[in-house]
Every structure is written in structure tokens, then in C-alpha cells.
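Notebook entry, structure prediction.
Reason for the run: the old model in the group folder had no record of what sequence produced it. Starting over properly, with the input documented here first.
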Amino acid sequence: MPKANETVLEIDLKALNHNFHYLKSRIGPETKILAVVKAFAYGTDAIEIAKYLQELKADYLAVAYAHEGIALRNAGISTPILVLHPQPINFKSLIEHCLEPSIYSSRILRSFIKVAEKENQDNYPVHIKINTGLNRLGFWVNDADHIVDHLTNTSSLKVKSIFSHLAASEDLDEKEFTLSQIESFKKTSSDLIDKLGYTPMRHMTNTSGIFNYPEAHFDMVRSGIGLYGYGNSSKENQNLRPIASLKSVISQIHMIEKGETVGYNRAHKSPGFEKTATIPLGHADGISRLYGNGMGFVYINDTKAFIIGNVCMDMLMINITGIDCNEGDEVVIFDGKHRADTLAENVGTISYELLTSVSQRIKRVFCR
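New structure, fully documented this time:
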């Protein structure tokens, strides 16, 4: 890619291709793959990423909310889309756009049956979510009879899959807990399948589960962060390529004397002569104030430069004392070499938060 001359998020579809096929190499040939494109495809561009994943023949896509799925359908995406956290107010439009809801509670099941029957649906595909220990969403493991009672009294729904979600698949210190989740899911899903009289798909693993728990691959696996280049372990990070690079430029350079201050609230006070640079990127773009005052950093010509003072809404300032650079030079916030997880960990957060915070006002540039 050419050097950035404004703030851009470069998205490398070749890296996405690599990650997709690496993940495929870790599962059996008959195991399907669901690609998670919620949260604007982890801060990249949901429509472009979904289109490319459709080209790569992902078996399923997943979003968190119905409006995310509707946007994909309106953009021409035809791959099946699972909506992980649907709300009853959106059920009619969800059906109109052929989106498939996660059914995670009795309230949601009753509400969806009511809407599906009103819309004259027959065997509409739904996905039954089982809570095996994350305690976020899902039916309890002993709810099989209750679920089947509702389903046998309507022809409007058909269970496409039964699924659950691992709580700590990246943490091998929690292996005992994860194995208990897997066993619980096996038992509950088998019970549900016996009572349904037909066999929906089963899926449980996220990215770390794909790597660490092959015994839980079942019929389909789900990957979000892995597709975007992060494997939640130093070993797997070597096999994946971050697809997003956030870059900007130096707008202006200042020379400041000892005792001068930088930014709002005079948060940085210079201990001596310093050279500073102002970058057109701020907390409205996803670089939180947490990264200010020396906690965050960027790279200029491969040299680390720390953020000084408070991050502003549209700008941040960095200390470039001793760095050979000029106004207009490229600044890298994160890329394949200078990883988002390294920057995020410095302020006590994770790559997911930094990536999904990148504002949609930042220009996206795609590289195939």
C-alpha cells in the first residue's frame, strides 16, 4: 500500500483469505465454518468483509443485532445469517430479510412463534442457544422438554442448529471448566435432538475453541477475532495475519521548552526541550483517553513514539524527540507488525475493544 496521507484504516483482504483458510485447515473437511461479522466486522467494514467471506464460501455469517443483518441483505449478501441477540420488536423485519434468530429464552421463543405464525411461516429456521456456563444468554441445560413442548405445538419453526458458547476457551488454566461445558452441551443437545425427532447442526467453539478443543468442533465452528488476525495466544498469532492497519500522518510539529504544557488541562508538562507532533486522530475515532499521558504509543519509521497529554476528540499529540521525521510523514497506530493487541494490553484492555472502536468516519481502503 502507498504511504498514508490522511487517517485511514487499510484492510488487507489477502490476509483475510489467509486467516480463513488457516482456520479451515484446523477443522475437519465436513465441518462448516461460521464467520462472525458483528460490530461492523470487528471495526473494519461489515459489507465488504461479508461480500468477501461469501466469495470464500463461508457457510454462515453471524451478527449481533437484526439491523446489522438487514444491512447485509440490503447489500446483496445471500449467505445464511444468524442473529445472535435478536429482540422481539425486530422479528417481523428479521423474517422479511430471511435472517435466522438465536432463540435463547422462553420469552423469545414464545414471541418468535407468535410473529412467525402471524407471518404464515412454515419451518422457519431458528437456532436454540443453550447456556452451559457463560451465564449470558441461553436456555438452561434442563430446559429440553420445555423447548420441545413449544416447538411441537407449531409448524412455523424448525431448529436449524443447537449451540452454546465457551466462557474461557483461550485460558488453559480453565480447561476443567471448559471440558465440563462441552460435556454439558453434548448431553443437553443430544437430549434435545432425541425429543425433536430430527438432527439439527451443533456448534460451540469460538476462535480459541477451534485451536484448543477439537473435540468440540461438532458440525460447525464459529470464528470472529481469528478471521481478523488474532489468535488469543502467541503461538496462534504467528499463524494469523491482522487484516486491519490504522495509519495517520503528522499534521504539525512543535518545539517546546522546559515547563511548557501540551493539550487540554495542561496534562503534559515538558521536563525539558521536546519535539512534539500532532496527529489527526482522537477519541471520536476510537483512540480512547486511556491511551493518553504516556500509556499509548504509535510508530514513525518503525520507532515507537508515546502519546502525551490527554487525547482530544479529533487529535492526539506524541513525543517525537530524537525521531527523524517531518510534517506529512506516515504514522502507524497498529498494523500486522505493530499489533493492536500489544497497544490494547498497555492500557489493560484487549484487541477486540480497540479494533471495534475504530470510528466509521475513518476512511477504509481495501487491498486485495
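Summary: The longest strand covers residues 157-163.
The old model has been moved to the deprecated folder.
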